[in-house]
């Protein structure tokens, strides 16, 4: 039996080792405070107790709801997508077309030798052989395991039997469904063609028959062969692999069908010219209904071909040829949505030729089918944001290409694009307000990332392209300007100079399209300050590329390369700003403060290679200021005379004889030679 604690031990335990009951009483007293007369006690309870007693406060406090909404918007800037994709308008073209038995199959000696020897030398067959060897290896391992463990063999045999029964039942159900679908289609589309081999001579004969007479029965045979070609290589035991055992025949079928089918369908519809309006008006006519099974088979198999191909060069060729058939896709909206979904994925793949071919096809389908424009705008915008999350020297050109394509696509319908722009800019503004309010690390990271900055850049480009033609973008214009200046104010310092240069370049673009003045130099000189550093630290090696970074690492701030990049990039942005106002009557006032700051910057830097471009910049701005000042002294109009102010130095501007114009051209040329781009 344990001894009883002494008096001193009990006193020490009572004072320093609180019991469970005493500890719980103390904790309860913190939460169950009495309500004071001024009502502050209950508010403290609600603040301390995050779960209990605060539901009413959260419902009635609008600021808490706003914070929740901002957090939701910050998680994803993407537009919501409608995943309910219908694909029923081509469901009756899944099977083969009926073939004319009089349409002969031919064989030649080359193809017979290929079939007899079964020699396949292309890459696809080599991959099939490798997979077959891997499967055989796994089978041998499984056989050894079964011989070693009889209980596991019995267990596997039991479940394998149940799986076979389930698959046989599922296959029978699918066959019943296919039979029910085929019963509603043309009676000639039930049975697959015979398993005769498709030889090069057979395809050549069919192609010649179709070219001579588009209504020839060989057209159905060619489309069935095209279906086999689109399924070629997917399953070694499929009918397409049995009929197509040569890649030469595969390319022969694909090239002919993709290049000639559009003209053949036009001939069957008796439309001689390339008028897409006439073709779209034929959708409800009898001629369209007669060849509709052929059109559906061609479109459905083309989609299967796009989804199965992995070679970018072949995909580029297929999309280039298939672009002429976009008008046929427009007759089936759900199929067009499926096509657009594939095209958007290929458009954002990163391959330049494939991206261009995909975008041309996207623009064609979107212009022909306005009902799919919303779907197209949503998909492309989300793909752009996903592609621009990470920016480096390898993908910056591709992101800029995607950006230009997206601006062109959004310019097809300014009204719809403007509505989406307002929503997106509202999300950006909400995130910026939250970060400005809290200045927390997590909220700042929502702004200091490529996705946020590239989203701003998207709407800047969109405004610049459509500002002169559409006067409904003024509200969007002012919102974007406020966001740019808010981000620059929120992220100051030398480390954010690359980001601030990008924002200054955006303001230059907006100023150029609207002819409004923005204090661009203030965004640059606010962070462009150098302190004298030891020579050893200045010559440290380190490469920084402002085009692919937003924030400079701390260990690069004192490097010489960083200082050179800062000065040269600042000169590029400032020269673009001064060039825009170089012939304006107010240029002397525009250049006064920047000249003072440039001279101060020249005095601060100790790198001789930077002093020369700064000195040249100062001399050119000073010379242009004196030139405008001399011209301004001889005029007699008032600054309130808008027409006279607008026509000031208009002839000189058209001739481009000012020295600053030549200076800006040299700066732009040197920028292209270095291959750098700020935005």
Automatic annotation (TrEMBL):
<keyword id="KW-0539">Nucleus</keyword>
<dbReference type="GO" id="GO:0030691">
    <property type="term" value="C:Noc2p-Noc3p complex"/>
</dbReference>
<feature type="region of interest" description="Disordered">
    <location>
        <begin position="167"/>
        <end position="195"/>
    </location>
</feature>
<feature type="region of interest" description="Disordered">
    <location>
        <begin position="81"/>
        <end position="109"/>
    </location>
</feature>
<protein>
    <recommendedName>
        <fullName>Nucleolar complex protein 2-like protein</fullName>
    </recommendedName>
</protein>
<dbReference type="Pfam" id="PF03715">
    <property type="entry name" value="Noc2"/>
</dbReference>
<keyword id="KW-0175">Coiled coil</keyword>
<feature type="coiled-coil region">
    <location>
        <begin position="121"/>
        <end position="148"/>
    </location>
</feature>
<dbReference type="GO" id="GO:0042273">
    <property type="term" value="P:ribosomal large subunit biogenesis"/>
</dbReference>
<dbReference type="InterPro" id="IPR005343">
    <property type="entry name" value="Noc2"/>
</dbReference>
<feature type="compositionally biased region" description="Acidic residues">
    <location>
        <begin position="170"/>
        <end position="180"/>
    </location>
</feature>
<dbReference type="GO" id="GO:0030690">
    <property type="term" value="C:Noc1p-Noc2p complex"/>
</dbReference>
<feature type="region of interest" description="Disordered">
    <location>
        <begin position="1"/>
        <end position="67"/>
    </location>
</feature>
<comment type="similarity">
    <text>Belongs to the NOC2 family.</text>
</comment>
<feature type="compositionally biased region" description="Basic and acidic residues">
    <location>
        <begin position="38"/>
        <end position="48"/>
    </location>
</feature>
<dbReference type="GO" id="GO:0005654">
    <property type="term" value="C:nucleoplasm"/>
</dbReference>
<feature type="compositionally biased region" description="Basic residues">
    <location>
        <begin position="1"/>
        <end position="37"/>
    </location>
</feature>
<dbReference type="GO" id="GO:0005730">
    <property type="term" value="C:nucleolus"/>
</dbReference>
């Amino acid at each position: 039996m344990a001894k009883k604690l002494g008096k001193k031990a009990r006193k020490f335990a009572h004072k320093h080792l609180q019991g469970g009951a005493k500890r719980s009483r103390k904790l309860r007293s913190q939460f169950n405070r009495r309500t004071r007369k001024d009502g502050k006690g209950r508010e403290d309870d609600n603040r301390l107790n995050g779960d209990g007693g605060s539901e009413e406060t959260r419902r009635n406090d609008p600021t808490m709801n706003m914070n929740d909404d901002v957090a939701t918007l910050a998680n994803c800037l993407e537009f919501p997508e409608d995943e309910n994709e219908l694909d029923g308008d081509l469901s009756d073209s899944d099977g083969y077309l009926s073939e004319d038995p009089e349409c002969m199959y031919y064989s030649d000696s080359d193809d017979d030798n290929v079939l007899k020897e079964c020699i396949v030398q292309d890459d696809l067959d080599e991959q099939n052989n490798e997979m077959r060897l891997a499967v055989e290896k796994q089978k041998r391992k499984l056989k050894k395991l079964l011989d070693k463990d009889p209980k596991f063999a019995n267990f596997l045999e039991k479940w394998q039997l149940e799986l076979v029964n389930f698959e046989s039942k599922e296959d029978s159900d699918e066959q019943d469904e296919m039979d029910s679908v085929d019963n509603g289609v043309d009676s000639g589309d039930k049975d697959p063609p015979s398993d005769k081999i498709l030889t090069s001579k057979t395809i050549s004969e069919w192609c010649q028959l179709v070219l001579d007479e588009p209504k020839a029965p060989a057209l159905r045979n060619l489309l069935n062969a095209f279906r086999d070609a689109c399924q070629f290589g997917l399953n070694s035991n499929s009918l397409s692999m049995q009929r197509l055992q040569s890649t030469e025949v595969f390319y022969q079928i694909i090239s002919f069908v993709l290049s000639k089918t559009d003209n053949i369908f036009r001939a069957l519809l008796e439309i001689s010219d390339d008028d897409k309006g006439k073709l779209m008006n034929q959708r409800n006519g009898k001629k369209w209904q007669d060849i509709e099974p052929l059109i559906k088979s061609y479109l459905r198999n083309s989609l299967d071909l796009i989804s199965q191909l992995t070679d970018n060069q072949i995909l580029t060729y297929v999309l280039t040829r298939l672009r002429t058939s976009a008008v046929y896709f427009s007759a089936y909206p759900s199929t067009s949505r499926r096509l657009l979904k594939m095209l958007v994925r290929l458009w954002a793949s990163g391959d330049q030729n494939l991206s261009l071919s995909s975008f041309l096809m996207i623009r064609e389908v979107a212009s022909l089918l306005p009902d799919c424009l919303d779907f197209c705008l949503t998909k492309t915008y989300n793909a752009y944001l996903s592609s621009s999350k990470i920016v480096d020297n390898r993908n910056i050109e591709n992101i800029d290409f995607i950006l230009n394509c997206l601006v062109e696509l959004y310019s097809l319908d300014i009204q719809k694009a403007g509505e989406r722009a307002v929503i997106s800019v509202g999300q950006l503004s909400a995130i910026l307000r939250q970060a400005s309010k809290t200045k927390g690390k997590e909220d700042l990271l929502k702004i200091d990332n490529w996705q946020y900055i590239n989203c701003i850049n998207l709407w800047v480009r969109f405004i610049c392209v459509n500002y002169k033609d559409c006067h409904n973008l003024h509200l969007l214009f002012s919102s974007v300007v406020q966001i740019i200046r808010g981000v620059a104010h929120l992220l100051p310092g030398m480390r954010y100079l690359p980001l601030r240069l990008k924002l200054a370049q955006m303001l230059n673009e907006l100023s150029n399209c609207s002819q409004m003045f923005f204090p661009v130099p203030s965004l640059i000189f606010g962070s462009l300050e150098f302190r004298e550093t030891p020579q050893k630290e200045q010559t440290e090696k380190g490469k920084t590329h402002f085009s692919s970074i937003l924030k400079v690492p701390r260990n690069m701030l004192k490097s010489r390369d960083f200082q050179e990049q800062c000065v040269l990039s600042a000169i590029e942005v400032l020269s673009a700003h001064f060039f825009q106002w170089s012939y304006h009557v107010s240029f002397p006032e525009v250049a006064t403060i920047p000249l003072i700051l440039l001279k101060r910057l020249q005095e601060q830097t100790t790198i001789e290679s930077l002093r020369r471009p700064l000195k040249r910049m100062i001399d050119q701005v000073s010379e242009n200021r004196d030139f405008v000042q001399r011209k301004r002294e001889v005029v007699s109009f008032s600054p309130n005379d808008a027409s006279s102010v607008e026509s000031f130095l208009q002839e000189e501007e058209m001739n481009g004889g000012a020295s600053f114009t030549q200076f800006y051209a040299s700066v732009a040329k040197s920028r292209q030679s270095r291959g750098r781009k700020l935005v």
